[in-house]
Amino acid sequence: MYGSSINFIDAARIIYRRMKPLDRFYKSLESIPLDRPPVIPQATYCVAGWLDIDLRKPAYDAKLMAYSLIEGWKRAGYEGIYVGWEASFNILAEAFGAILEGVDGELPRVSKPILEDVDDADELSIPDPWMDGRIPIHLEAIRIVCKAVDGEVPVLSYVPGPLTLTALLLGSGKTFRYLYFEPGRLGKLMDIVCRASTSFAEAKIESGCEVIVVADPMSSLVKPGIFEEHISLYINRILEGIRGGAVPSLHICGDTSKILASIGKFRIRIFEVDTPVDLSYAKSILRDVCIMGNVSTTLLKIGKPSDIEREVVECIRKAGLQGYIVSSGCEVPYSTPIENVKAMVDATVKSGRIT
User: Can you list the domains of the chain with their CATH numbers?
Assistant: First the structure.
């Protein structure tokens, strides 16, 4: 009997080792206990530094963007690819007509709002994701990456959340002033933003993307009551528009501890948890949601591989072996050493065990 038990454990270990990353990913979404979590850092433009590629060029070249992301994945060994380069809200704001500017060595950003007042929202036209701005570049990059990975790993991509994109189009000062004193006046603009993000998501899904991540970083800056009453319905509207079998995910960086209960009401399979949030606490609130995070991006950038390994072990200890994906707390910064990302991957793989 004892020998049979050992053989069973050995067989289980072999099955886990041979599991495709895509299968491991989906089992995590189902909260099936595993020997170890998947490891998918939020790595996009950081790969330019690893490959000695001009940071700005892939933002305007789908083939170079796809090549860079694929090569970064191959070299670091993680188990999923985020397809995108700069922030999705900059891409969509540009398609709305915003001007992007940047200095050498940095990605372009929206230089100034395009709306003088919230009532000017009537002048906006919802971008066509297949034609407007640089959105078609991103869609082509998704298609290239999906073909290259051929179902081996999940392909993820961001679309902008409502508050962050609204703040880019209107200006953050005006947006927050309306949000706190006249929230009803933001309704038309937020509705336009939601429809644009949903259209963007639909195009990404049609291009082959398996996971759509709604990214709304500015939502961590508002009071919980304001988030619950005036922001959550718009986030949920975008999430409800993620169809076609794609996985709906949510990213709100910063400290989201006070709004986790509201987040738990969303139609999401994954929540990306940033470093300020305790993983144990997040797991206790979001019981039916796969948690993803939250290795410090600062540590990834300036720490040593041994520091990264310790942090990964601590994250796995807190989050457990089901319903959890090891990742960075936010997007991996440019100039992060590839050795540190490899350390994240290695520490996760080494953690594998049968419990």
Answer: 2-350 (3.20.20.210)
- Is residue 38 classed exposed, middle or buried when 0-12, 13-18 and 19+ CB atoms within 10 A define those classes? buried
Contact 346, 60 (CB under 8 A): no
Query: C-alpha angle with apex 206: 18 to 210, nearest 5 degrees?
Result: 30
Please tell me the total number of residues recorded for the chain in this structure.
355
8-state DSSP, 99: P
Beta-strand relationship, 290-295 and 100-101 = unpaired
DSSP 130: T
> Residue 9, exposed/middle/buried by CB under 10 A (0-12, 13-18, 19+)?
exposed
∠ CA 124-130-133, rounded to 5°: 55
Mean pLDDT for each consecutive 10-residue tract of the chain (355 residues)? 43 63 97 95 97 95 98 98 95 95 84 93 95 97 98 97 97 96 95 97 98 97 96 97 96 97 96 97 96 97 97 96 97 97 97 63
Pairing of strands 211-215, 247-251: parallel
Cis bond before residue 236 (omega within 30° of 0)? no
Whole-angstrom Cα distance, residue 188 to residue 192?
6
DSSP class per residue in 131-190: TSTTHHHHHHHHHHHHHHHTTSS-EEEEEE-HHHHHHHHH-HHHHHHHHHH-GGGGHHHH
